[in-house]
Write a structure and sequence with these properties.
two-stranded antiparallel sheet, globular, 81 residues, alpha+beta
C-alpha cells in the first residue's frame, strides 16, 4: 500500500520507519545532527515547496513534508482498517 505524504508524493507503507513532527524536534541536538548528516549524504528530499511541518524517515532517506504527523498517521490508520 502507498501513503500520500504531500505534493502528490507517495511512499510505500513498508518503507516508512517513522514520521516526526518538526516542532520541538529542532531543539534536540541529536535530531539536528542526524538531519544535517542526512542532508550532507544526499538522502533528503522535499515533498513540495511549502515550509515542512514534519519529516518521514524511510529506509531510503528523509522526506520533508508540509503534512502534519497527525494527518499522516490518520492515513496510515485508514490503510490498516
Amino acid at each position: 500500500m502507498y501513503i500520500h505524504i504531500g505534493a502528490g508524493r507517495m511512499v510505500r507503507d513498508r518503507d516508512v520507519l517513522g514520521c516526526f513532527d518538526m516542532d520541538g524536534k529542532w531543539d534536540s541536538e541529536l535530531t539536528k545532527e542526524f538531519l544535517k548528516r542526512a542532508e550532507k549524504s544526499g538522502v533528503t528530499e522535499s515533498a513540495g515547496e511549502d515550509l515542512p511541518r514534519s519529516f518521514v524517515l524511510t529506509d531510503k532517506g528523509v522526506i520533508f513534508t508540509h503534512i502534519s504527523t497527525g494527518a499522516i498517521a490518520g492515513r496510515v490508520e485508514k490503510l490498516i482498517l
